[in-house]
Every structure is written in C-alpha cells, then in structure tokens.
Here is the input.
Amino acid sequence: MADRLSQVSGHISNTHSRGLLAGEVAIITGAGQGIGKSCAVLFAKEGAKVVISDIDEKRLSDVTKEIQASGGDVLAVAGDVGADDFPKKIVDATVQKYGKINHIVNNAGFTFDKMLHTTPDDAFDIIQKIHVRSPFRLIRQAAPYFRLKGDKRENRCIVNVSSTTGLHGNVGQANYAAAKSAVIGLTKTIAKEWGPFGVRANTVAFGLIHTRLTASKEAGATIEIDGKKVALGVPGAQRPTGEVAKQNPDAYPLIPLRRGGSTDEAASAVLFLVSPLASYVSGHTLEVTGGAGI
Here is the structure.
C-alpha cells in the first residue's frame, strides 16, 4: 500500500510523459472554454494526448496554442457535436494521429431556458440532441476502440457531464433537466455493457461552477442556434466569485462551502474519474457541488 501511495504521489507531481494519464488519448468536447478547456489543459499536463473540439474555431485555436506552449500534445478538431458527420470525423482524426482512444469526456452543451408551459418543441429537442443524442453517437462511433478483447489493463473511461439539474430538476429548465437525467441512465448502461471489456463509465453532476452558463444573463453571452441568437446565463445572477465569495459567507447560503466552484476544480473531478485513482469506480455519478443538495 505504501508503495502504491508513493507511486500515485509521484504521478501527481509529474507532468507530460509521467503524469496520471501518461501516453493515454482523451477526446474532450466543448473544449474551447470553461470546464472543457480546463479539462484539456489539465489532462495535457498529466501526460495525455488530448483531442479537443469546439464549435468556436478561434477559441479552439487559442486552447491549442496554450497546450502546445506548455509542451502538451494536442489535436484540434473543430465542429458541431450535433452534426451528423461529427462522430466519424473526430474518431477518425484521433485514431489516424494517435492510433487509439482511452477516454471520452462529453462536455459540450448549453442551456435554452424557458418555463415548461412556454417551451416550444424546438427548444426541447435541441437540448436533447446536444446533451443526449450527441454523446450517444460519439460513444457508439468509438465502440471498436473500447470493446477490445484480451488485455484489459490499459486505462479506459468515458465521462458524461451531467448537472444537479438532472438530479433534482430546476425551474425554467425542463428540457435541460430531462437531458441531464437521461445522460445518467446512458452512462450506467455503458458501464454494464462495456464493463466486461475493462471500460469504466461515470457521470459528473456539477453544481454551481462559474462559467458563461451560470453567469448573469445580463452579461450578454449568446449562442447561435439555427440562425437565432439564444441568451445564456441566469437572470440576475450577480454573485461574487473567487476570494470575494470566500470572504462573504452569506453569498451562497444554500452551498455549505459558501461559494461556487471554478472550472479548474471541475476539471480536477473529471481527472479523478478518468485516472487510475478511480480504477474501481464505474457507473457512478460524482456530485461536484460544494455540498449543495445533500
């Protein structure tokens, strides 16, 4: 046990060729910013060869340069995860360059909030398409590189990003709640079907992580859907972050830690799930909430 702990400690302190994910290949969607970007940067520091995707080519290019500047190995594949040809495009590009796939982090997504009784079909359907159908299609496309017979010792894991909204529901997010709940069922099914091949599958359910989706809607962040601009964020969410939040314990009374999480903290939770540290964790939903919802 002491030797194993020493080995793990050594992994954590090293980067690139000797990190927790040394030599492994990880596909991360929605990696142009926020949690996806933090995952990509962290995975690369831990030795993974990262294949990053985002619909925003400029942001994706910036993340690529950042990872390369720190000595990481990265391949950028821009595109819309909801496009019919996307799964084959990114899987083929990954295998052509790296020859294998160890991990998939299905992180790409957005919110399209409306009260249930005013939610039109298209606002419901697009959220299911991006948050459920797209991860399903990418995982299915990558199946030949996960359902491997014989040697099962190589670390392989799929992480699907969910939300506390998928666990508890949320006002104004019937579409998002339905999708993020479905992701949990999808993940458990993968764990049961692919477990015999040595593949793990887990979900991470985030609480308040400070990203453009949880920032104030008044900040003006938008995403274009079928030619229409959709506002992102939460109305009136003018809340302190960072050190200001830590010094103001009344800022987030429903979160025991009294603050929201950073994207780097979110990425660390995902790293744990894909790493050898979680080698016997599969079919699990890890709640990363600062204690909220307990």
Notes: The chain has a mean pLDDT of 88. The beta strands are 25-28, 49-52, 73-76, 103-106, 157-163, 200-206, 222-225, 228-231, 285-288. Residues 82 and 130 are 6 Å apart (CA to CA).
